[in-house]
Structure formats: structure tokens, C-alpha cells
Amino acid sequence: MEVLMILVALLALLLLRTPVAIALGGLGVILLALKGLPLVAVPQRMQGTMDSFELLAVPMFLLMSNVLLKGGVGRDLYAAVQSWVGHWAGGLGVATILSCTLFSAISGSSVATAATIGTVAIPEMEKRGYDRPFIFGMLAAGGTLGILIPPSIPLILFGVITETSILTLFLAGIGPGLFLAACFIVYAMLFARFTGRHDPAPRASWAERRRATLFALPTIALALAIIGSIYAGIATPSESAGLGFVLALAITLAMGRMSFAKFTEAVYSALRTTVMILLIVAGAKVFSYAITLYLIPQSISAVLTQSISTPGLLILAIGVVLLIMGFFLESLSMLLIMVPVLLPAVMGSGIDPIWFGIFFVVLIETALITPPVGMNLFVIQAVGKASLPEVTRGALPFAAIMLATAVLLWFWKDLALYIPYQLLR
Q1: How many domains does the chain have?
Q2: What's the gap between Cα 330 and its chain centre?
């Protein structure tokens, strides 16, 4: 009964649109007070949570992605990819997904990926007669690659919460991320071919391709520097994020696309998002501490393991719960609320925590493009000046592809685990 009352109280606060950080932290404080524990532990827990070298990667990646966004780097990336594949059937769709994939390997943020590529791709695809819901849905889905293909902010937070290797999580995200990108590309080409609702771009000359690729090379080099420094063991994710910010600022300054006003806007935007994330993390830590004292994770774990006989059914139940919660919570809130609660049951069933992290992120990716609170839907709605039903209609086929990928992950675990455990062992 105690467990049920706490969960109902949290759900009520969230339904009343209480800010997630306040709902988690406030309820945690109340629970600790009811236990008669000294509340001096609350600021200590909050400060201890944010005093983390691993979490330093979050503001640095956000700052880097905002500098790239203000510097218009997405235009160069999109133009280079379009010059090579734009004349294919559905070529602009292919160019959009490839651009999202490449930008994801730099930013680690789904919102930054969707906004950066969407600003460039939407006018170009509309000009070529592509179906508007298809354009918006593809960009909303393409943006979600930013939280799966490393570096990924949700994977960093998952690693911090579960105390698992962030580098191993990054490696595990490569296979599913590229697989999803390939599925999106195939769907884009089939949609364009069978609907005929597009006018292929003219084939670019070799001179145009060379010029466009040359402009995009600094961005590609930036992605290689970030990923290479992490995987070669030269730098930690936090250090590579700092390196990425310095290189991003140098690239945009060298190209004459960064002014003091733009830099100020980038810093303010990154600061605002960072404060929001860290407040949620701190509130989640207090709530996690409180529910641990109330033995809630252990109780839920015991109920799940006693009532569900196989790991497959447990994962199915978790998937259903996450999909339902995705209708009401944004991705980071889902991760910070549910992972501490579900992890004991997952570990008790012998499920690899690295695999579970990727499975979890694929499902919260799906939540990013499902109404009513799918963040990427709102981003693309604002960028494309579209209606929410229009964006949602186009995103549903891509959400179905993501769910199919989550199912495939269960039957083919090596999709996530082959690279970290076999290829690079």
C-alpha cells in the first residue's frame, strides 16, 4: 500500500504539470521527512550528484552543439550529402537521414539534431514536392538518432545512474543507431518511389560535389576527432566534449559564421538546457535515495520477478510500461525516474545492463516522436511551421520502425553487444 501511495502521488504531481525536478525532489524531501531523517542529507545528495566528472560532458556537448547550430554548420553538412545522393529516388530523404546521422555523431542531442538539419532540409524538400507529413515525420525521427549514436547525453546519464561504463554504452549504441538510420533510409526511398510525390534534385557535377564536400570536411573532422579520441582511449567523454567545443568554436570562427551575439545566444541556450537537466538529475537523486529507504525498488523487483517467470516477459512488461509513460513524460524524466526502479529486477533476471541501456534508449527515442509530449514533434512543428497532427501523422511509420527495432534487439542481442564485447574485445 505504501508503494502504491508513493507512485500515485508522483503521478498526480506530474499530471498537474509540476516541473519534473520539483516533483521528484519535493516528493523525496517529504518521504525523508516522514521517515524522521535529517533533511541536511538533501543538499548533500544534490551537491554530490552534480559534483561528477562524467556529468561535465553534458554541458560541454550541449555548448558544442549550440555553437554548431548558431554557426550554420548543418547547411554545409546537408549540402555535401545532397550533392552525392540528391538525384536518387527519395534522394533528399536519404540526404536528410545521413545528415542527421553525421550530426548525431557530434552533438549527442536529439533536439539539436532535429533543429539543425530541419532548418535546412524542410525548405529544400518542400521545394521538391515531398509530402509535408513525410518530411516532418522523417526529421523528427532522424533527430532521435542523436540520443543513440554516440556521443549520447541519455547514455551518459544512464552510465552515471547505473555505474556502468559510458564508453561501453557508446560502443553498444553504434550498431542499433546505424541499423535504425539504414531502416529510415530504406523507408524514405520506398515511400518516394511508390508515392511519386517528389521531384528528384538534378545530379550535381563533380566540381559541385568537391566544393560542397570541402566545406563539410571540418565538420566531419570534428566528428572523427570526438569519436576517435574516446574510442582510442586518448580522452574520456567529458574531455572529448571539451575538445569538441573548442574545435567547434574554432571552425565557426574560421568560417566567419560566429559573432559575439551568436556565441552569447549559444551559451545562454546551452546554460538553460544544462540547468534543466542537472536540476532533474538532482531531484531524481533525492527521490531515488528516498524510495531506496522505503525499499520500493526492491519491492517492485520482487513483484516482477515473482509474477513474471522469464526475462522475455519481463522485458515485454517493461517495454509496455515505458511506452505508456512516454505519452506523459519526456525522455530524460523517464530515464531518471524508471532506471533506478527497474534496474534491480533487470539485474536479478540476468539481463546485461549494457544491453538494457540501449533497449531503454530505443524506447525513449520512440517517446520523442509520440504525442502528446514528444519533444521532437514540437521542435519540428516550430521549425516547419506545421500543425502537430501533421507532424504526428508523418512520424507514426518511423515510430513503428523503432518499435520493431526494439523487438529485434531482444531476439538479436548482438546488434548492440557485438561491437563492445566481440569486435573490440
Answers
A1: 1
A2: 11
336-355: pLDDT as tens digits: 888 888 888 888 888 999 99
Kindly report the backbone phi and psi dihedral angles of residue 34, in degrees, each rounded to the nearest multiple of 5, phi listed first. -65, -30
For residues 425 and 307, what is the distance between their CA atoms, to the nearest angstrom? 37
Terminal-residue alpha carbon distance, the chain: 47
pLDDT per residue as tens digits for the range 16-59? 878 878 888 888 888 888 887 777 777 877 777 677 777 888 88
d(CA 288, CA 414): 31
Ordered DSSP codes for 72-85: THHHHHHHHHHHHH
Q: Using the 8-state DSSP alphabet, how is residue 204 labeled?
A: P
Cell of 380: 519540428
With DSSP H G I counted as helix, E B as strand and the rest as coil, what are the percentages for the chain, rounded to 5?
80, 0, 20
Q: Is residue 101 part of a domain?
A: yes
Of 247, 230, 248, residue with least CA distance to 239: 230
Assigned domain for 287 exists: no
